[in-house]
Amino acid sequence: MAVKQLVYYPQDEAKLRQLSKPVANLKNRRLKRLIQDLKDTLEAQPGAAIAAPQIGELKRLIVAKFGQDDDADEEPMLTLINPEIIEAGPLETGFDGCLSIPDIYTWDTPRPSWIRFRALGEDGGEIIRQVTGMDARVLHHEIDHLDGILFLDRLRDPDELYTPVADDDGNMKMIRLTDLPRIVR
Ligand SMILES: [Zn+2]
Description:
The protein has helices at 13-16, 29-43, 133-146, 151-154, 180-184, and strands spanning 49-51, 61-64, 78-88, 91-98, 101-112, 114-120, 126-132, 162-166, 172-176. The mean pLDDT is 95. 23% of the residues lie in helices and 34% in strands. The protein contains five helices and nine strands; from the N terminus they run ααβββββββααββα. The chain has a single domain (13-184), classed as Alpha-Beta Complex (Peptide Deformylase). The structure holds zinc ion (ZN). Residues 98-100, 141, 145 line the site of zinc ion.
């Protein structure tokens, strides 16, 4: 049980591009330790969810805190083993950010507006559930990690990337990355 070192883009990109393998044995003690490590690591981060490859373990395993829409209450951490999308709604363009790509955000990635999914829980029981809005975006983002896909790959416009920068009054503002050189000068 430990907070693990995150795998970062671009320096660890090769690791983030791997295809993760399904979890075969749920009774495994090593799996229990990995789930706890993922929870501890997510707890120490500002994110809503984390996928095992983000701590260098190529297993189809996610820990997520649903309830991310503004009008919702954040739920406790939920472990999703071998998650699969059963059905998905139409794409909606919206917000994305990634623990493995710190300080870079976008409002430009299309993701399903709702997802009906299946997964196994920590106790081995089947979870079938539907999530909408930001929770669907979070789940889709994490399943992407299991397939080696990053949100950068899904941008409609590759220049639609923003980073927080303090203005003269010390207020944080989101600045487009392509506009940064003008500000630094
Ligand atoms: Zn991510």
